[in-house]
């Protein structure tokens, strides 16, 4: 046995020894990584891959043999002296180790790399079938794995010659009828392997829709979604299939469009008929349900493309069934549903003619009101559960997803119906179900921009109800204060007499450190939108502002663009700016001497920052008034 072989075997034994020494294992791993780069590695590969089962660390030797082989074929291809000899060796190893996926995955990738870089797929494909005959069913998983590897070559082997990759793509398209037929027939015995292989092919190759239809792939996918252990693979397969269906363009033939329409009609009918029973098989397993939800939602992105070719009753039924999905508490589920709703409303707003838009909105109004209420209620149990990281994820989810769903609902449902839903839920859940009441206010807050030009007594009624609620629940108050501040423009335009009441409600919580952010931001919003309405309140606002900065808790943020105190300063200056020059001067003169005096005394860095910012803001306001 020569020295390189001895050194490699020693390194493997050190790595997997029961009595591992960290320093020694690190050295052994580094040695193996460097050895893979040498030409001597080619000599060691066959010795490792033909190890006797009785030797020590047998499995580890084979594993490293496969690893080294893959590295060498991928990155040191020019060192190969005889392509055909290496091809036969890899094929033999695949046959020997076909029941060991950890080994065959590397061997399959090695064979794919060899086929690509030698530009020999057409020559080697018949030999692969000949040496691994499908009459022996134990060969099927290996063949599926190898076909997956060759399909993924464009991504896994970007360093290969471009002309070889182009040639490979054309050759694979040529052999794809045989491969897809093999995948479909393999599903009965090895469904998971078959779906994995199909996913590799549809993602990486431009397979025609007519071929997919001919090989009955969609029927295979539907069988997969019915089985719990195949949900993830089937959902992925369906997503890529529907993506293919949707990507029709000017180059798509009339025949292909017709096939797409037939597939969509078939899929829609199958889902409407079977989805409820499929959901029942998830038996409360949220992760399992999420894959079913992904599957169902993937069709939603296609329906708008073929909306004039499908049964309108089935189209409506799809969304009625989607409504049932909104009852399940899952961030991923609601996110996917929101994506479907966004796609639908984009179609209605940008593509559909007015008559079609009116008909669809009328037909879906009741369903979307129900969906709206479900989404509102289903978010609430997530608020107080989980750790801090989960809470932050939930906050982002509400801001990005729930808000979008609420706003998009307004494109289908008349605003009065949504406002009535919010109002009735909020009123009926206070004070015993503040989590649901808080969720309803969050939805109301999300509608502020949509309703900015919508004059309605119902909006004012909800705002009036909010400011009358007495609560110590910080989650609820955080949302309610933000909510009132968000409607600043609406209040100024349609209910200016309510502005002082709204401001007083916000300032009521100014001394609670946990609420300083919503209070400060809402104060600034109100002063920006309703500054004219606050002219008579300048004395009260000034007194409040003065007392706050003098008693400012150390924990408040005062620096940076998003500092809470910055918002208070900006808001106060916005109101002061609307005053006559004499009034401005009066308050500036009132503030500056105490500020200067405070700065000359020992104070905290936080208060120092606040005082300086107030001073500079007042001076800037004064200078601007001189123009």
Automatic annotation (TrEMBL):
<keyword id="KW-0675">Receptor</keyword>
<keyword id="KW-0539">Nucleus</keyword>
<keyword id="KW-0653">Protein transport</keyword>
<keyword id="KW-0813">Transport</keyword>
<dbReference type="InterPro" id="IPR051345">
    <property type="entry name" value="Importin_beta-like_NTR"/>
</dbReference>
<dbReference type="Pfam" id="PF08389">
    <property type="entry name" value="Xpo1"/>
</dbReference>
<dbReference type="InterPro" id="IPR013598">
    <property type="entry name" value="Exportin-1/Importin-b-like"/>
</dbReference>
<dbReference type="GO" id="GO:0005634">
    <property type="term" value="C:nucleus"/>
</dbReference>
<comment type="similarity">
    <text>Belongs to the importin beta family.</text>
</comment>
<dbReference type="GO" id="GO:0005737">
    <property type="term" value="C:cytoplasm"/>
</dbReference>
<protein>
    <submittedName>
        <fullName>Nuclear transport receptor, putative</fullName>
    </submittedName>
</protein>
<dbReference type="GO" id="GO:0006606">
    <property type="term" value="P:protein import into nucleus"/>
</dbReference>
<feature type="domain" description="Exportin-1/Importin-beta-like">
    <location>
        <begin position="101"/>
        <end position="235"/>
    </location>
</feature>
<dbReference type="InterPro" id="IPR016024">
    <property type="entry name" value="ARM-type_fold"/>
</dbReference>
<dbReference type="InterPro" id="IPR011989">
    <property type="entry name" value="ARM-like"/>
</dbReference>
<dbReference type="InterPro" id="IPR057942">
    <property type="entry name" value="TPR_TNPO3_IPO13_3rd"/>
</dbReference>
<dbReference type="Pfam" id="PF24140">
    <property type="entry name" value="TPR_TNPO3_IPO13_3rd"/>
</dbReference>
